[in-house]
Amino acid sequence: MPAPFTPLLRVLALGLVLAAAPALGADGESAQLAEMQKKLDKSLAMIEALAKRVHELEARQTGASVAQAAPAPAATEAPRLEAVEQRVQQIETANAARRGDDTSLPIHGFADVGAGTANPFTNELKGAYVGNLDLYLTPKLGEHTLSLFELNFEVGTDGAVGVDLERAQVGYQFSDAATVWLGRFHTPFGYINTALHHGNWLSTAVRRPKFVQFEDQGGVLPAHTVGAWLTGSTHAGDGKLTYDLYAGNGQEIIGGVLDMRNAGTVHGNPMVGGRLGYKFAGALDGLTVGVHGFVDKVSDDQQPADLTRVRMLGAYAVYDTDTWEHIAEFYAFDNESLAGGTGTHRSEAGFVQLAYRLPRGAVYGRYERASLQQSDPYFAQMTSVDSGASYYRTAVGLRFDVDLKTALKLELANTHTTDRLVNDYNEAMVQYAIRF
Amino acid sequence: MPGSLLTSLRRLACAALAAVVLATTGAAAAALPGVAGLADLPQRWRDDDGRELVLAALAGERVILTMAYATCHRVCPLTIDALARMQRRLDERGEHAQIVVVGYDPANDDPAAWRQYRRSRHLDRPNWHFLTGDEASTNALAHALGFDYWRYDEHVMHELRALVFDPRGRPEAALGPETPDWASAL
């Protein structure tokens, strides 16, 4: 059904054109004709937009307005059109929100496979390996209610496929400055653990530094927490201040692996922590610096069980631009044995990774070191894939983006283990990582 | 009087031209199946100076429209490079176009972030517009353009895509990673 306003708008546009026509009497006719053509095109596009809105309004009002009186006088058209436009704008916004609230739930994720002289997590295994299949779902529940679920299928060092409910978070967003999450989340410390957690495609490097690997792959930090997490950011100066505060179940070391206790703890002690960062703008755009820390009470499955108060304080810095990707993280531990009576133990770990971005990839180098006190029950009990041992590692690598969803990476590394078993080994590995 | 006659003829020619154009306005079918015209897209955005910009107001010249996010260092630099090549091609031809980049991540891609983005990359041409909207408009725009994207924490997983609209706002060309030279679409 033709919209009654459309011809009116067209006539108005025609009138505008005719009114402007005398100007063509001047010199430079072709230039003016071109200019007029441009104005006409612009007017037509705007008319189309207006006509579309009027169509929408008429469609909406068809049922209700059939029995109404004759059209309002012309003098009342302007305010009416304005009201109509406002209403259509509201409808547009509502429709847009509804489109974003699609009930379908697309599944996205990451996957990777690889091969090398060593498995990325233990040098005892060689050859080809299947990495991770990470499925990511973010069903949208409402304007402020958020949810996030991440399922991870990974092959352990025993060759078995394990399934992790990697993240299960339900949250409420008060504003950009404050979102609260409940459930299992990536513990906000450093940069890598939240920015480059799963999804090897995201990372420039083949693998994370050993001491910040996942708990069952050699990491000594609680990469996951089950509890509550408040996070947000706000402008401060030219840059942005970011913060995280969290509290969750205290960890337990079970079978030599730090466990985040998805179902609660036996000892009932909580873990609390936070992270504060600042993202610079201006001349230092791309630079983020921050501090992080947590206090945790960690028990283990020994008889009798150890209970250690783990206190970590550290800092991190990231310089991430179109050309460079530099990451540095530092962690200092001041742990106190509460059950074993072995006193306090200081340990530290850190890494620096420098990367230069290429048009289709990057080259990188990394140095990482962990000096972990073996008299500290917290580290001594982490025996799975030699996670609690001290070491230092130097690695260089290359990432090549085959296309926008596929990356081929190569890493050469040399590792020295320096306490439990003094060893020195080299590794070469390739990884094929995708996103979908 | 010849002057008066000439004026009348010109008016008549203009009116005829306008009538022809207007008559075809209603049949502004998408040149690209399934892709919305400029007038069908969410209209109100904020530029990197914080001013409101209505997309349809850019019609009258070609509009090259893409989406990006300010902290993207993999796909978006390629997009910006491709747009810069298009700009150079336009300059060589003496043609004008409006180049529009809409942020995928409105929470972070606010006007200040885009202003910084422009400054650091020397993208200071006035016909380049870096826009921010609300979440709903951003979703709706991506949906209407057929740009698939998803978020993973602070990252936005997205494609290398742009659309070219003709001066009347009709979609003219779709550009992607399969397009070897975006400038050739002009």
Task: Please tell me about this protein's structure.
The complex is a heterodimer of chains A (436) and B (186). Chain A has helices at residues 5-20, 29-65, 77-100, 192-195, 377-380, and strands at residues 108-116, 127-137, 145-155, 161-175, 178-186, 224-236, 239-249, 252-254, 257-259, 270-279, 287-300, 307-320, 324-337, 344-358, 361-371, 391-403, 406-417, 423-435. Chain A has 436 residues and is of the alpha+beta class. Chain A contains five helices and 18 strands. Chain A has a 16-stranded antiparallel barrel. Chain A has two domains: 5-99; 107-435, Porin (Beta Barrel), CATH 2.40.160.10. Mean pLDDT of chain A is 84; it is low at 1-6, 11-26, 63-74 and 97-101. Chain A is globular, with a radius of gyration of 30 Å. Chain B has 186 residues and is α/β, with parallel strands linked by helices. Chain B folds into two domains: 1-31; 33-185, Glutaredoxin (3-Layer(aba) Sandwich), CATH 3.40.30.10. Chain B is built from four helices and nine strands, in the order αβββαβαβαββββ. In chain B, strands 5-4-3-8-9 form a five-stranded mixed β-sheet, sandwiched between helices. The longest helix of chain B has 24 residues, at 2-25. Chain B starts with a helix and ends in an 11-residue tail after the last strand. The interface between A and B is large, with 57 and 57 residues.
Detail the topology: elements first, then pairings.
The complex is a heterodimer of chains A (436) and B (186).
Chain A lengths: L4 H16 L8 H37 L11 H24 L7 E9 L10 E11 L7 E11 L5 E15 L2 E9 L5 H4 L28 E13 L2 E11 L2 E3 L2 E3 L10 E10 L7 E14 L6 E14 L3 E14 L6 E15 L2 E11 L5 H4 L10 E13 L2 E12 L5 E13 L1
Parallel strand pairs in A: 8-11
Antiparallel strand pairs in A: 1-2, 1-18, 2-3, 3-4, 4-5, 5-6, 6-7, 7-10, 8-9, 10-11, 11-12, 12-13, 13-14, 14-15, 15-16, 16-17, 17-18
Helix pairs in contact in A: 1-2, 2-3
Chain B lengths: L1 H24 L18 E3 L5 E3 L7 E7 L7 H18 L3 E7 L7 H11 L6 E4 L3 H11 L3 E4 L2 E4 L3 E4 L5 E5 L11
Parallel strand pairs in B: 3-4, 4-5
Antiparallel strand pairs in B: 1-2, 3-8, 6-7, 8-9
